[in-house]
């Protein structure tokens, strides 16, 4: 009863890539985010040992990469294509951030394959290539230096695609049992008795010591096991 | 009257980096997102020509990088540190995504320097190193292959830091003048007359042709100049 994974319907298209190392880095970036389909339009060198080295454990993505002569060939069958650009384009159909584009791409990926298209390292996509895309994506950055490495740009875009799927966008939190209210209150009482016993808390001038300590432990959201440890410590220093 | 830039208060700390190329890639990733402060704890080789090559136009970040013997030295003065990990850590103080961690880091950066800490390529940060961080960050990814390249991980984290600053997280949309309601309505009227004149629209069986066309152009959110172009076309095909 697994739902179809929309990331499987996203192809990454690299157009006229100059450095094979960047193709490998892109494959690795894709695989870390769960994407697998790579199209290469007229790469300068491919296959290449540098690509393989940079792909690390994502060589399978490289091996299944499809070589194309034209961008049209790489976009065949797609229902939506997003072209990445480092420059502001006056005639962009719609200019979006990766964060805004990702849900749209994934929505369309329910209906058919979609593509994210990256141009050559030095020149990016040409106007003609961008005009084959319905969406133009710009990664917000330092206006004085906005030239992301190709592999890094692929990583950001694939990361946003994954983050746009709520069930994949979280990290598993270790499942420790949280402390219950009464356990925490008993700890506070134990702590107060101990601080009185060792003379740190002056009952005639308590100031706001217990409030400060409560605030600290409240922020920490104590776990059951931690309360046991803390009470063990209190016992060890002589607090009954 | 510029507000202080919180990104200037974020230092990137690379611990025991093996490959100098990754130090350069990290510097480039930082600069593209507006970060400038790099600390290197016991890098295997630095300075190095590979680092310089991979830094591209971010060599200034490398040149100002500070070399440290220990992580404590690199964290001196910081008020909050986030350590990146590719593994789920049972004893993580708090495990967050980059997206959840970024606003917290920037909030703390108002009070003092903060750090994002990246471990060695093969082994990541040790438990001892992670325990010096108040936040542990995990980049959500493919559970079967979650090994981001170091430079790519730095790119994702720096990107999220920039995206957490609302005024930096958008792309400038080209300022074309939108068409006004009455201009668009006059275009529709002109279009309808033309379609009638050329015999494409049958007045006895109009079906929903005009509705379909309105729907199309509504989605496009016509610009003033585009209305002029479209009406020019209608005129050229003989529609008055």
TrEMBL record, chains A, B:
Name of one Pfam family that matches: SpoU_methylase
The protein's enzyme class: transferase
GO cellular component, one term: cytosol
UniProt keyword annotations, A-Z: Cytoplasm, Methyltransferase, S-adenosyl-L-methionine, Transferase, tRNA processing
Positions of the tRNA/rRNA methyltransferase SpoU type domain: 10-159
One GO molecular-function entry: RNA binding
InterPro entries registered for this protein in UniProt: Alpha/beta_knot_MTases, RNA_MeTrfase_TrmJ/LasT, SpoU_MeTrfase, tRNA_m1G_MTases_N
Organism domain of life: Bacteria
Location relative to the cell: Cytoplasm
EC numbers on record: 2.1.1.200
Family under the similarity heading: Belongs to the class IV-like SAM-binding methyltransferase superfamily. RNA methyltransferase TrmH family.
Descriptive protein name: tRNA (cytidine/uridine-2'-O-)-methyltransferase TrmJ
Species of provenance: Pelomicrobium methylotrophicum
Lineage: Bacteria, Pseudomonadati, Pseudomonadota, Hydrogenophilia, Hydrogenophilia incertae sedis
């Amino acid at each position: 009863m697994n739902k179809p994974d929309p990331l499987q319907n996203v192809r990454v298209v690299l157009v006229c890539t100059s450095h094979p190392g960047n193709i490998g880095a892109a494959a690795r970036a894709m695989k870390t985010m769960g994407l697998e389909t790579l199209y290469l339009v007229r790469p300068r060198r491919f296959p290449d040992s540098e690509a393989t080295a940079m792909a690390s454990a994502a060589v399978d993505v490289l091996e299944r990469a499809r070589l194309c002569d034209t961008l049209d060939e790489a976009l065949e069958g797609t229902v939506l294509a997003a072209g990445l650009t480092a420059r502001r384009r006056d005639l962009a159909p719609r200019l979006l951030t990766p964060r805004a584009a990702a849900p749209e791409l994934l929505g369309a990926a329910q209906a058919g394959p979609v593509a994210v298209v990256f141009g050559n390292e030095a020149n990016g996509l040409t106007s003609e290539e961008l005009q084959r895309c319905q969406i133009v994506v710009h990664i917000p950055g330092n206006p004085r230096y906005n030239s992301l490495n190709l592999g890094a740009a692929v990583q950001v875009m694939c990361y946003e695609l994954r983050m746009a799927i709520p069930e994949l966008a979280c990290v598993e939190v270790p499942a420790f049992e949280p402390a219950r209210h009464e356990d925490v209150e008993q700890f506070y009482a134990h702590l107060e008795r101990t601080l009185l016993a060792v003379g740190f808390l002056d009952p005639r001038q308590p100031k706001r010591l217990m409030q400060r300590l409560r605030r600290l432990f409240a922020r920490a959201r104590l776990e059951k096991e931690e309360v046991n440890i803390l009470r063990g410590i209190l016992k060890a220093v002589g607090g009954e």
